[in-house]
Amino acid sequence: FKKKNKIINAFSHKLFFLRCFFILKKFDYYFITYAPESNRIIFFINLILFYLFCLKNGNKIILRIADTEKYVIKKKDLFYVRFLKYIKYLSIKKIKFLVFENKTLEKSFKKKFKRDNFNSIVIRPTNKNFVSLKKYNKNSKLITLGIPGAIDKMRRDYDYLVRELNKIKIKYRENITIKFIGSSNKIMSNKNFKGSTLSISDNFMDKISKMGFRVISNNKGFISRNEYSSMMKGVDFLIDINQKDQGYFFSKSTGLVTDSYNFSKRMILNKHNDPYLEFNEMSIYYKNLSDGINKVIHKKFDLKSKKIIIGNNFNINKLLINSIWRNTLSIK
Predict the structure, then answer these.
(1) What pLDDT tens digit does each residue of the chain (332 aa) get?
(2) What is the DSSP letter of 285?
(3) Distance (Å, whole) CA 85 – CA 69
(4) For residue 273, which phi and psi values (nearest 5 degrees)?
(5) Given 10, 180, 199, 253, which residue has the most CB atoms within 10 angstroms?
(6) 170 vs 211: CA distance, rounded Å
(7) CA distances to 22, 147, 238, 292 from 269, in Å
(8) How far apart are CA 228 and CA 218, in angstroms?
(9) How far apart are CA 149 and CA 85, in angstroms?
């Protein structure tokens, strides 16, 4: 049976689950999209409250795991980090179902916790029932490649981007636009020892521009969701340049896939990041980024309009039906 959605405006995210005890009482299930995964000590109280909430309502909780490394205890971890991770581990042991945004992430997590029989499903990071991809105009010489997310060298490898773009033949470059979609150089600036501000984005953007590519960025700090959506317009493909050592796709979720679904965009994707070919209907795979871009330049594909069924509703209903069935068996 249906219940009305309840929006909780917590007075502090550090005490979010304290309010949950008093407000969330009469729901069949609790879908937690962001658990307290941070290993910072200031979130300790909220983590304890999360554990108590799981202890009380574990058989009703569906939890999305965003970063599997936040739960894995390592030898190099400081004592307090190990302690926080152990509390999180005890919490998810009480939870009925875990949710991941892709199979790679799900299987990677289960491999790290082989002894634990966690129930899990894949739910794509979108509220859409399907994604409608437009037919790609093979006759157009103009190509717009989008790089979603704020300028962040910790997350994305811009040096790799520069190296790979430099491999593209000069005669094609004037027809290619590289669009940086997200917060840009004002908030991502660093101060040198003299106190003046130097933007980390200027250097690689200038290099790309001097190569002959057209570069577009918002050239400011935080942007609104509407501005972000507006910048997505006209983008033909989203590019995967995630830092390899950050574990995207394998140990943590990525905004690249979320934006691809929500804005109905195809991806130029590193094939290594999709071992189960989950995104093959909306991706052009590459071993080296320049190879993927050249596939687009030389039209080595036929990208027709396509409707991709997401299947989230099916997976959620399957999860709930299995839950009801198990409860029925346990009653008998």
Answers:
(1) 344 555 555 555 667 787 777 766 677 888 888 888 888 888 888 899 999 999 988 888 889 999 999 999 998 999 999 999 999 999 999 988 899 999 999 999 998 887 777 888 898 988 888 899 988 877 788 999 999 988 888 899 999 999 999 999 999 999 999 999 987 654 344 433 233 333 445 588 889 999 999 999 876 677 888 988 999 999 999 999 998 888 999 999 999 999 999 999 999 999 999 999 999 999 999 999 999 999 999 887 778 888 988 888 777 776 666 655 454 434 34
(2) E
(3) 9
(4) -80, -5
(5) 180
(6) 8
(7) 45, 12, 8, 8
(8) 9
(9) 28
Provide the token pair at 324.
Answer: 């009801």
Give the Cα separation of 113 and 248 in Å (integer).
19
Edge-to-edge strands, sheet with 176-181? 214-217, 176-181, 143-148, 237-239, 266-270, 283-286
Q: Which of 9, 72, 65 is nearest to 35 (CA)?
A: 65
